[in-house]
Amino acid sequence: MQKANEQRAAGEARSIEEGAENFLSKNRAPVEIEADWTEWINKTGTAVWDRPGLARAQRSIATISILSVTHQEGPLRVHIEAGLANGLSRLEVSEVIMHSAVYAGVPQALRSMQIAYEVFARLDEQSGETER
Fold it and tell me: 0.70 exceeded by the pTM?
């Protein structure tokens, strides 16, 4: 996975696998269980993301929506970026968040939209772009 991170172009969104690796490296489990924990997270995540029935972009829509309405800001950042890597446009990510406001509340949708803005801005900064 480290090789994939190094080869990724500046400003290119990380895959869910890269995002998970990065997130777990910043949100570590106690050393006594860290290897097992990481293996379990990766195994269960892979089992869900590789299932037939939904395309990765569709899974990203569901995941962004769920994380937005459950106030999971760290994982939301990971999954917004993964959603882009899975083929969602910035408009589609933003529309998912806007749609969640009707059913889960405007205050959290405002925060989730700010997180999307920050993810997009970071990717633009990494690629050398200032606006899209």
Answer: yes
Percent of the chain with pLDDT over 90: 63
Domain that holds residue 38: 2-127
Q: Is residue 132 part of a domain?
A: no
Do the domain assignments include residue 99? yes
> String of b and e for 94-123 (b: at least 16 CB within 10 Å)?
bebbeebbeebeeebbeebbebbeebbeeb
- Residue 23 has which token pair? 């997130």
